[in-house]
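Let us practice reading a record.
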Amino acid sequence: MFDAPPKKLVEVSGLKMHFPIHAGLLQRRVGEVRAVDDVSFDIFEGETLGLVGESGCGKSTCGRAILRLYDITAGSIRIDGEEIGQTSQHALRPRRPKMQMVFQDPQASLNPRMSVARIIGEPLDEHTDLSRPQKLERIYELMDAVGLNRNFANRYPHEFSGGQRQRIGIARALALNPKFIVCDEPIAALDVSIQAQVVNLLEDLQDRFGLTYLFISHDLSMVRHIADRVAVMYLGKVAELAPRDALYATPLHPYTQALLSAVPEPDPSIENRRTHIILTGDVPSPANPPQGCNFCTRCPKVMEMCHHLDPVMREVQPGHFVACHLHDPEHAKTAGQTAAPEATKSIQQGD
């Protein structure tokens, strides 16, 4: 008896999110910011896909676009088999309960004039016909699920700590029994001592309710803890996508290698022997990305073709995808022959 293959809950194909740039007296369109530029990946039911990258790489915009908080420029988005990429906002309304979001800043995402009970109960008011006692009972169930005292139901957000406010946001996201939740850097605004508690809560809720997460973060250590697979973004595109252990053990894209080399090792004896890859230069503007590979201006292994040809995302190992000419079979023989080591330098920790 063979196990059934995992079901694809979220399917993203060719997603683009471009924001227009207007200038001049008549505010004519003079360009566009390519915040998300041709991103494709799948998320399987019950798994957590980590989405990582530098600030400004487009990961948060990607998460919001998948939930159609923006009207996307191009691409296809399927959630639980339903195409929502070009669906109108009005038609999306009945589909909203199955897809929710936990925002980065709990202080900014909670209405300061609403009590906890009203914040958590607002989705129930909008999408259900429950009676007042039923809503109150559901609110109490959600508060119990996220570890909030029921006696706090009539308090306001400013009366809570950052971690407690994030729990309120999680409870609100769970109110309508969603299948898919985008966690947009849910621990970035929290104290380090509270971050592990919130991540453990998310894992417990996933096991209890069978949730599927897109976990957006720049904290590579936390992503390693919670994610099943990891996608690495750079300047609006996915550079590498792989199972967590494979990506952290053998990163294939030069950007992923540089990103992981910056993660400190807890053991000092190992940390002192590690070679850190220091990238030079600034990240190009998404309004004017370089021709060819987005990473060619900072890559330590750049070749001539990288300045002209945009690499194709290809599967180089089972489940391990990378967009890099170094792993293109047609150019494998020339890889490294025209590398430009001056684009980066390596330093030995402790030298």
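A brief commentary: The chain is about 30% helix and 25% strand.
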